[in-house]
Amino acid sequence: MKPRPSPLQRLALPALAALTLFSALPAQAVGRIADVHVIDRDSGEVLPVIRHRGEHWVAGRPGARYAVSVRNTLDTRIMSVVSVDGVNVVSGETASWGQTGYVLSPWQQYDITGWRKSDAEVAAFHFTAAPASYAARTGRAAQVGVIGVALFREKVPEPAAIAPEPYSQAPLRERLGAAESAQAMNQDSSAAPGSAPPPPAPAEATAKAQLDGGLAREESVASRRMAPARPAPRLGTGHGEREGSWVGHTTFERRSQRPDELIRIRYDSRENLIAMGVIPPDAMPRRPNPFPGSPTPRYAPDPN
């Protein structure tokens, strides 16, 4: 019997969020079973996604608060396990697929705005120098600069078995017996003489090893191609001010232990992306601000 997942592995978003967080999606959202994009919360801009050598990049503004927006594109529930800088955004653990995540209803969109501190609060994400990032401050600076979203479909209950008609039982047994005999013959013919057939490799472990190896090779190739020195420290994600953000809990059984889709978005400052060759120097000019002397609109601050 499989162990039941803990309540933290099944965070449910309130129904109100499904109504208030629907909005027009950018053309550059990443993903198939979910649309994922990064939003600069201070400017309101959806950060353009740059595809470079097989990877997705966004340029962040140092100091700006941001959100990872996830929208379910299916008519069934999905679970999104989200990591920033290699850290699970809900539990604060070093991220892995099997951990806690957010459950999205059909077509629901939710903006993940920070590190979850409770059912009612988060500490806001903001772009900061890598040494000041939450990951670095907790001794895990190796993966700074990456956002990951592992998406899982929900397991559908199997329909109740229907007993076959009496006349079809004998032919079915004969067909099953013939199939088992053919399978045994195939196994014997593939084994070396005088040796036992090799045990099958665990499919999940093999697939995970292949994926991990592929990611490692991509990182190695990317690092060799991006040799030019950065003009400024890398960006990471800081542990900002507390904000209200409400969630509940629900049950969710994954259809598979492996993600149905795995999304990776890397980020750094615009200057660093130009230095690395991700953005051409003459691309993405800064937008002029028609009111440069006006402060960013804010709500009433707390008293001193």
Automatic annotation (TrEMBL):
UniProt keyword list: Signal
Region (Disordered): 178-260, 278-304
Signal peptide start and end residues: 1-29
Signal keyword on record: yes
Biased composition (Basic and acidic residues): 251-260
Ranges of biased composition (kind: Pro residues): 287-304
Biased composition (Low complexity): 223-234
Name of this chain's protein: Uncharacterized protein
Species, as recorded: Hydrogenophaga taeniospiralis CCUG 15921
Lineage: Bacteria, Pseudomonadati, Pseudomonadota, Betaproteobacteria, Burkholderiales
